[in-house]
Amino acid sequence: MLIENVSPAEIERRSMEIIESELGDxxxxxxxxxxxxxxxxxxxADFDYxxxxxxxxxxxxxxxxxIKGGAVFVTDTNMALAGISKPALEFLNCxxxxxxxxxxxxxxxxxxxxxxxxxxxxxxxKNLCGKKIIFAIGNAPTALIRLHELISSGDIAPxxxxxxxxxxxxAEQSKEIIMTDNVPYIISxxxxxxxxxxxxxxxxxxxxxxxx
Length: 212
Known about the structure:
Elements: H1 8-22, H2 31-44, H3 49-52, E1 53-55, H4 59-68, E2 72-75, H5 78-83, H6 86-91, E3 95-98, H7 103-112, H8 116-127, E4 133-137, H9 141-152, E5 160-163, H10 171-178, E6 185-188, H11 195-207
Parallel strand pairs: 2-3, 2-4, 4-5, 5-6
Antiparallel strand pairs: 1-6
């Protein structure tokens, strides 16, 4: 039977109660990691994320510290950018950007024969130099691969890499190489992920510091 006239806040509350009741064993997660996993499951209705979410040691606490210091979020899609809570960003004095659709990024990608996602990462690194950056990649494995190259060369040290690109070509492999880098990461193993997942992880982090 359908339940009518339920507020969005009540829908979310009930959804989280259902998720909690069906989660099962979460002993491999810290409390903060569990909050993130529940937010992703709430977004996707996919309980596989209980097992395929990987967190580097202290990833969440490192990310929260960066957010408290006014971190900037960089996404690989405008969909992810749109999904990140603007009131939370404003309250915490943080910014969020997506450069993938910029005309200069498209031109550079065409001239160099690279993907727009790669060119967008290069623009982010150039324009946001000196800032604490949280990269939220939910669509483009090439963006993760480029980040790996820049991390390996010492050109960037991200505050956090959220690596959850969805797909069949290089998605799984790109996540695996980020987990070899010496940077904080939150990664969804395998093929699953997406822009909504990356935005959900960003919001889960923000909501730990911003009480709606």
